[in-house]
Amino acid sequence: MSNPNPGLYVHAPFCPRRCPYCDFYSIGDLSKIPLWLEALEREVSHQAPYWTYVFDTLYLGGGSPSVLEPEHLATVKDVLGPLKISPKAEITLEANPEDVSEEKVTAWVKLGVNRLSLGVQSFQDKALSGPLGRGHRVGDVIKAMEIVNKAKLSWSLDLIFGWPGQSDLDWLNDLELAVDSGAGHISTYVLTTAPGSALANSYASGELIPVAEAEIADMFLKAGVYLRKYGFERYEVSNFARKGAYSHHNLKYWRRDNYLGLGPSAHSFDGARRMANASSVDKWAEALAQGRTALDLIEDITPEQALMESLMLRLRLAEGAPLKWIKDSERAEQLARDGYLTKVGALWKPTEKGFLAADYLARELT
Ligand code: SF4
User: Fold this and answer.
1) Ligand 1 lined by 135 (C-beta under 6 Å)
2) Which residue has its alpha carbon closest to ligand 1 atom 3?
3) Is there a domain that residue 290 lies in?
4) Long-range contacts of 71-76 (CB under 8 A, 24+ apart)
5) Pick from 254, 276, 295: which residue ends a domain?
């Protein structure tokens, strides 16, 4: 663990509508918000005695925490009271563009939110209303960006690429608007399909044709070239930031720091054990009402596994992995000659080709 301060994640599992590609746990029934808040309070009481370090990041994710009313978020803040959260903590809230209003942003800032992650996904209505099936349109994005920039919040912008019908020009247009948006952080995710999702069914029926892997690889590399030209560093496979605008919370996952996850389906890691809450508000809340946790997963991590995980994760980060973590240095040297890695001091760092082939690198070197 490189940082003794853990991160704190709160999963707000509410989405009034379901995006066709999504595999996060969420429900549409907002009448369960009071049950969720009550159970959250119980979970905090249960966990507080075990998590005594000061949390220096808090991430309100989901689901869509932006659908919560400011009074719900004020309750969340009160409920987290027994946990020690640094007054300087990075506090991120995930927001859908259609939920952003001046009133909400003002309330979020008052509650201590100092970073937003805005789920823009695309600047094209044909993608938002088509394969991405989102609830917002470009007009909502423009309005949300104006409000967030006016509030002088630090913010991140999510883009999805590789959607059926997307041309090279479409992708470059999205990247250009992202660069001009005022966001200091840009995440670029390939459109993936969860098995059984509406999008997977559209692919299976032939209604939509998935984009070829070679085209996706090309878009991945083009994003690197374009965003670097405008001052964004790819610091993780899918994440770019201007200087200093990294997601400190997400870096905790990638550096294997400790984190506590609260809420249904949230994951925790205490350095030795990984745990996941049940992916059901009812099951999770019922267990807590009975004075216990509802865990779907408890995994003890062996020292060998820990090293392997650290190596896999570091090979996905620009900061790279220490040379001494890699047993097969011959293989690493060969991968460097093939253009996947570069040696910088005592570290192996991925090149753009290495980022693109991060899973291959992990397989070859662990
Ligand atoms: S808003 Fe996010 S969490 Fe909710 S359904 Fe869409 S992709 Fe999933």
Assistant:
1) no
2) 63
3) no
4) 72/33, 72/37, 73/107, 73/108, 73/111, 74/111, 75/37, 76/10, 76/37, 76/40
5) 254
